[in-house]
Every structure is written in C-alpha cells, then in structure tokens.
Write a structure and sequence with these properties.
30% of the residues lie in helices and 27% in strands. The protein has 13 helices and 25 strands. The protein binds shikimate-3-phosphate and phosphoenolpyruvate.
C-alpha cells in the first residue's frame, strides 16, 4: 500500500491549538514590510505558504527574523523595497502571489514572479487586468494570465472596479495597489469575501472605507509598524470540527480560533447540519475576533448551501464534503465554481477522491451533490499535492471502516506542518 496509512478511530479526545491563520499571517508580514518601523507578529503560521511570503519579502530587501512562531519584520516603508536580483518564487501560494503583485504594482522596478506547477496553472488575470488598468505593465503567458509573469510597476491611478468573483486576493491586491495610486481606489464585490486586509490596514493606521461589499482607500496612506497577534486558523480547526462531530465519542477543545464573520461559514454549515459546537470566550484582539471552540459528537444531516455563504467557507468545502458523506440525506453545494482554480480542481478531485473511498458524490458544474451514508469504507487517496485534500483524506481515514492510505500527505505542510502529530495525539 502506498502513502501514509491513517487508521480508523473509535473516538477522539483532547485540546488542540491550531496554528496561526494563514491569511492573517501573510498580511501581517506584507503590511509589516510596507510599514515604517518594526512589526512584531506572534503565532505566525510556519506553513510553506507563509514562509514563501517571508522569502519574497527578503528578496525585495525587507529583512525579518524568526524565533519559533514569533516574527519581527523591519519595515522601512515601500520606498526602501529594492529590485530583486532573481525571480520571486511564491511556491504553492495564491495569496503570496496575488497580494504581492498588488503591492509591487506601485514599485518603480521590474519583478518576475513564478511558483510551483499548481500555481503556474492558476489564473492571474483577475489581478493583472485591474493592475494594468491602474498603470502597471505586466507580461506573461496567455496575455498575462499565467505565471511566470514579469511586472514593471510605477505611477498608478486610482480606479473603481466591480469584480465578478468574490475573492479576497483580488480585492486585497487592488486595495494594496490603491494605497500607492493617486486618488481613490474602490473595489465592489458580488458578495463579501474575507476582510482581513481591511481590518489590518486600519490597525496599521490607514483609513479604509467599507460599505456592504464595497471597499475604498485613498492613495498615499502611510503604515506604521504594529504588534500583531495572529488567531488560530479556522480553516485548520475545520478538520477537527468534523472529526469531533463524527468520531463517535470524546470531546475536542480548540482554543484561540479566529471567528471573523467572513470566515465562519463552516460553523454555520456544521451547526445547521446538527453539529454540537460551542463558542466560548469570544474576544477581539488586533481587530480580529477569536474564541475557544468545543465540539462533541452529533448526528449530522444533509444541507444545501450556495450564494453568499460560499466565500465564507470556500477552503473548508473538501472537509465539509467528508462530513456530508457521513450525514443523513443529501447535501448540495452550489455557486462554488471557484473551487476549480484552487491548488487542484477541488470539485473533480473531491468527487474522485471520495468516490474511491466508497462515498457517493456527484460532480456539478459549480459544486457537489453528496449522498450521505451510515459509513465510509476507506481505501487509497492522493492529495495530488493539495494540502486541504491531504488533511481531508486523513480525517476520512479516521472516520472510515478500513482506514485510508494517503499518498503525498506531506502536502499538509503548506498550511499545517504539525497535522500528523496532532491527529495521532487526539486519536483514541
Ligand atoms: O485572501 C486570502 O488570504 C485567501 C482568499 C481565498 O482565495 P480567493 O481570494 O481566490 O477566493 C482563499 O481561498 C485563500 O485560501 C486565502
Ligand atoms: C486556496 C488556498 O490558498 P492559496 O489561494 O493562497 O494558494 C487554500 O489555502 O486553500
């Protein structure tokens, strides 16, 4: 049998401190690099994606130091960034690429950016088109849609954009470019995507206007270095919310999980399905709410989700699909075509992976139809290099009858380097 074998469990028990939020860690490093003065980040995610952001910053002349999960960024303002002497490699990270392109659009030098095979197939025109309209020059395969891309930044002009997808990476890239443009830059999205950039910019001293799904900034805003405490990542906690709900016995406590309302779709979905999840001690630090989550076993039933809910749980759909396989009745997920342009085509890879484990899942153009069953057989599945799939298949293995052998489990390092050790610790 190939891969890492994950055996079935009869229950789970324990407290898990999930690592720092990936989206917030990227932004803390990037904004720290743009700011004047030192930024201290605690609970920084040491996943491969956020390390890619630190590495690119270093190549741009922004030094940082790291001790465990604490990071210090020595920002000297955007003017101090320098032209890199080599290609910037964003690895597997869509967030590093798109946010960095936004920041660099206003820099008076030339940068070439690339990434791994997955990132080189992901669409970039969603950020390069608006950045070109603002004044950046960008060249790349398929009219500037695919990495590697070369960008020469410079004088930017503020604009108003109405995006067709609710994407925080697109919104953030435009807003970060807007800080260096003349006039006002506005982004209006079809639904609200995660708002960490807006919240953190305010913390760094920049005025950001938000009204429903529209965000505006004035060019010229200056950032001042800050202390940023990163909450635990709800996208990583999601694996344990599903495990704790379906493992049969025991309780899992997850302290300090970020519960920003633009990210809590997974809580809403699981609770609607019948999950027993409690939020304890909600408090806000550095503009981001966080809470302790307690999850206990429950019987789950199918659910229908779509519309504005999708951006609030987009990265959690693979693990939500595992939960739906073991829920009573049918689950339908729609309006989620964005899944097709993530680290893998997460509609077809989830369908193929779960059906190989004995589930009944149908592919829809923009989502999934999942027929719940009382049990899941298990078998073999590959992460295909996609971290969310690696962890979803491991949880499926723990909840299955025969276990699951996960090929390329190491992909989990992108967002959760300790994942294997943690699942061993809670398994009963
Ligand atoms: O801005 C961010 O930090 C992210 C936004 C989302 O992507 P999109 O902006 O493409 O929806 C999400 O899937 C990704 O994991 C992180
Ligand atoms: C889609 C994801 O990340 P990114 O777009 O940053 O690669 C993810 O973490 O699931």
């Amino acid at each position: 049998m190939r891969g890492v074998f994950i055996k079935p469990v009869s229950g789970v028990e324990g407290e898990i401190r999930v690592p720092g939020d990936k989206s917030i860690s990227h932004r803390a490093a990037l904004l720290g690099g743009m700011a004047h003065g030192d930024t201290h980040i605690s609970n920084f995610l040491l996943g491969q994606d956020c390390l890619s952001t630190l590495r690119c910053l270093k190549q741009l002349g922004v030094p940082s130091e790291r001790e465990g999960t604490e990071v210090w960024i020595h920002g000297k303002g955007m003017e101090a960034w320098t032209e890199p002497t080599d290609v910037l490699d964003a690895g597997n990270s869509g967030t590093t690429s798109r946010l960095m392109l936004g920041v660099l659009a206003g820099s008076p030098f030339t940068v070439t950016m690339t990434g791994d095979a997955s990132l080189r197939s992901r669409p970039m025109r969603r950020v390069t088109d608006p950045l070109k309209l603002m004044g950046a020059q960008i060249m790349g395969r398929l009219g500037g849609n695919l990495f590697p891309l070369t960008m020469s930044g410079g004088q930017l002009q503020g604009q108003t954009f109405r995006t067709t997808v609710a994407s925080a990476q697109v919104k953030s890239a435009i807003i970060l470019a807007g800080l260096r443009a003349s006039g006002v830059t506005t982004v209006e999205e079809p639904a609200l995507s995660r708002d960490h950039t807006e919240r953190m910019l305010r913390g760094f001293g920049v005025e950001v206007l938000s009204e429903k799904t529209a965000v505006s900034v004035h060019g010229g805003g200056l950032l001042t270095g800050q202390d940023v405490s990163v909450p635990g990542d709800i996208s990583s906690a999601a694996f344990f919310l599903v495990l704790g709900s379906l493992a049969g016995s025991g309780e899992i406590i997850l302290p300090n999980v970020g519960v920003n309302p633009t990210r809590t779709g997974i809580l809403d979905a699981l609770i609607t399905m019948g999950a027993d999840i409690e939020l304890i001690d909600v408090l806000e630090i550095c503009g981001e709410p966080r809470a302790t989550l307690r999850v206990r076993p429950a019987k789950l039933r199918g659910i229908e989700i779509g519309g504005d809910m999708i951006p609030r749980l987009i990265d959690e759909i693979p693990i939500l699909a595992v939960a739906a396989c073991l829920a009573e009745g049918e689950t339908v997920i729609r309006d989620a075509a964005e899944l097709r342009v993530k680290e893998s085509d997460r509609i077809s890879t989830v369908v193929e992976g779960l059906n190989a484990l004995g589930a009944k899942v149908e592919e829809l153009p923009d989502g999934l139809r999942i027929h719940g069953q009382p049990s899941l057989r298990g078998g073999q599945a590959s992460s295909l290099g996609d971290h969310r799939l690696a962890m979803a298949w491991a949880i499926a293995g723990m909840l299955s009858k025969e276990g699951v052998s996960v090929e390329d489990m190491a992909a989990a390092d992108v967002s959760y380097p300790d994942f294997m050790a943690v699942i061993k610790k809670v398994a009963q």
